Amino acid sequence: MHARALALACAVLAPWGASAQPADPVETAARFFEAAQSRPCAEVWAFYSAGTQQAIRAQVHRRERERAGAPQKEVPEELHCRRSGQLKKGTARLVRSHGNEAVVAAGFGGRQVSSNRLLPGRIEWNEELRLVREGGAWKVALALPKVEPAYPQLTEVGPVDVFIEPVVRGLHQRLEATSVSRAPRAGLEAVVRDPEGWASVLPSFKAIEPLERAGELDRVRLSFADPSTPVPMRVRLSAKATDPMKDATTIAWDVEGDARAPAYMRGRWDLTPNTDGTTRVKLTLVIDPRHWPEGLFSAERMANAVRDLEKAALKAP
Questions:
Q1: How many alpha carbons lie under 13 Å from residue 162 in its C-beta half-sphere?
Q2: Are strands 86-87 and 173-181 parallel, antiparallel or unpaired?
Q3: Which residues of 71-84 are buried (b: 16+ CB within 10 A; e: fewer)?
Q4: One domain for residues 128 and 21
Q5: Does residue 8 form part of some domain?
Q6: Which of 70, 104, 105, 240 counts the most CB atoms within 10 A of its CB?
Q7: Which residue has the higher pLDDT, 245 or 28?
């Protein structure tokens, strides 16, 4: 008798959420719909299957790495936390069930503004929810689109995204490496405005030598360990940023002689500020793959160039 009373007390005092979910998919779905209308996001998150949680994290991860200027403050647990409409009590019902999967439908009501009404009108609709059994409990499995990077050839090397275009015979090859840096913007600026700074982190870099200017363009001669032929380059540098929190900084270089050069390369560094104080650092190279050793511009080497630029910025005065 005492054991039964103790079990009942434990059931009443157990925390509301995934740990207290019943084995019934209908009741689990109803509790999930209710939670998504009023409960803290952490409790809603506990209803999701492991696959759904992983997919949501992947969404946030990819948006963070591909953001273009705006700060990304998404939290995975809060991305799919709220649902519109009010659950109609008692409408949750099992649509179908097979093995460890089930589909539950429920009715909802709410107000919607339409073009032919001055005031919001009341509407009702039905929604279906897929659930899967994990660890003896039913979990919600959202139908989320598969997260794909901007480029199919994109590789994540630590915090750096690297895109290496496939080699096509007779065409130049494009390579990009990007990362969001928390190094001081002044330090990043100092490195890209220093000829030895922006060049010394390039793969296989050996030396840089200033040459006579060509009109408004600086000229330098870059030497690499491989290939060993020095390459004269024209250098363009964007104007000094009047507001480092808003203005982007770019330094670009291209080989003299263009396609006739013994080692063709053009490239650029771009520093683009984000409104949260971070900076998107991007290295772009375009090469003739016939002129450079295979594997020289690997994903790891491109990522190291971006990381080394950031390290140099952290040491800048």
A1: 20
A2: unpaired
A3: eeeeebbbbbbebe
A4: yes
A5: no
A6: 104
A7: 28
